[in-house]
Amino acid sequence: MRLLAIPYYSSLLFFCSLYTPTRAQPTAKDSLITANAYSNVLQVYHQYLTPETGLYRGSEYVQYAYTLKTGHPYFDDIHMQKGSVFYAGILYENLKLFYDLIREEVVINSPYSAYDNYTITLINEQLDYFTIQNHLFINLRDTLNPSAPHRGFYEQLYKDRITLYKKEKKEILEDLSSGQVEKSIVPSVFYYLKKGSVYYAVNNKRSLLQALNDRRKEVRKFIRKNDLGIRHDKENTLMKVAAWYNGEISNMANK
Q: Which of 189 and 175 is assigned the larger pLDDT?
């Protein structure tokens, strides 16, 4: 079953036409005014369309037909949490959603869910990024980049001169040892650094040093001096190394 998608682009174009930049070469003040104007127009647009036809497009989310012995398929929590989506070029904030890590699907409530408990799976190809609480997920589409990981949603942990991504997955494991089929969730996590236009899988110390080969000795010293370790504290270590590499940590390795 699919929701009926009502055209909405013409409405957005109408509201966006209500403001235009006034200078050929805008100053910082002009840019701020323009940004505020666009934000105000977007707010009016959201208020104008209720329910928002541009958001509620996608297929019905299919619930799991079996009971899991351990774990759940969602990111962080089994319940929907506060978040936002940048969907088909429009930002929608203050939503309730969850992220299914097995199917790699973002799910929101139908505007009529209070009556029929209907949830909607958003269309991945039209979803550029989304947030859950303070977590930001980017839809990576560097398909022509030979070093890029598989396309999909990656949590962006850090971004500056280098970018740190986290890929969390969940799979269903079937156990037949008891004579019955018991299904459990098995999670896995992978990390990637993007430096320039090149992606590096960084899941151990050796791969991290290879990714940051231009400062290999300093990286070693920074990790040792700050009692960090990929093996026992991977995510924290990677985030601190990324911040240090960008010069944000005052306790530099060469001091």
A: 189
